[in-house]
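Suppose you are handed a protein chain with no further information: no name, no annotation, nothing but its sequence. What can you learn? This example shows the usual starting point.
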Amino acid sequence: MNHRRWAVGLIVLAQWLGTSLWFSPNSAADELMLAWHIGPAQFAWLIAATQSGFILGTLWLAYSGWADRYSTSRVFAISCMLGAVINGVFSGGWIGYEGGLVLRLAVGFCLAGIYPLGMKMIVGWVGNKSGAALGLLVGMLTLGTALPYGVRAMGASLPWQAVIQVSSVLALVGAALVFFLGDGPHLQRSTGQQGSSFSRAFSVFKIADFRAVALGYFGHMWELYAFWAVLPWLAKELISAAGQSPWGVPATVASVSFFGISVGFLGCVSGGRMSLKLDSAYVAAAALFASGLLCLIYPLLNPEWGFLRFFVLLAWGFFVVADSPQFSSMAARSCPAQWVGSALAIQNSIGFLITIVSITTLLHFVEVLGAKAVWILLPGPVLGLVGMWPLLQRRWSTRWVNLEKMRNTT
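A reasonable first move is to predict its three-dimensional structure. Written in structure tokens, the prediction is:
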């Protein structure tokens, strides 16, 4: 038990450090746009390049079967090291916009070996009851995403290159934490060459529960990363419209963005704790509904109500990611143990392909529409809940049958 807790602790810490690579350029968005003479729409393609690289990486993992055929902790650590090096090159002063797109694509490819394999490592050490542990893991990913903003907020005078280089150093530390950890006892590796097949990777969608979980996850992904990507623009508008800090003390775009993302850690952990008592499907559906409702409400608030808008923004950041670990836990439980790595990879691949569309669309309109542009994200929660409905019906029917059996026996 103690060994398992140590392993989970190392994995979530490594995930936090490794995923700091993800949004490191966002913490210096204004400086980068000024240095490269680009606007928000062009900057969106830097984020989209990272997402595209992640998609390519997860597709490779799903096709090759590497996610299930080799030591998960070693693949995770090597991905952290490669991502750190490439991210460090991105911070070089000689890199221009076009070169930056290529390097962010490569960083995204490396992140494919960090995020889904971190989830697989958790399932390997914890087993089927992974909702709470995955809540902690995805919470750490959320903190990792917020970390560059936190570094920026604490060292506002630092050049953008230094902020990005800090992320590379942290990723190297994450690699060192798990390199010799090994895989947990609850998963088995697949063998032979049968893993090198897209048909095998996509066959998990024939499983009804996995398909419903994936549809809910895809709706969630339409909203999540676009929300994180647009936060600096929402923070700038919030501070400007309120005429002061939303909470009465000096604030910056970086600090508001940091709190708006990092509060998702509490959402993930709270959802994970709730999943110990309630079915993960109910927890995910409730979070998806809440985030969609807050997405609808936020632009309707008076821009002068700075504190209220900031509070709603924090609540949105809390719920928008709280369902993510539950989707991963349900996906892992609904497919054969020897396919978990590939199943999570292919689900992530499609989900992040969706984020490219939502991010580029949202950032294209945010300068024109302001906060109302976030309504572009509303279809995600709505369609996600529709996709989950058959799963929720099956879970409720099963629960009702079990209650009837208990009544009959008593």
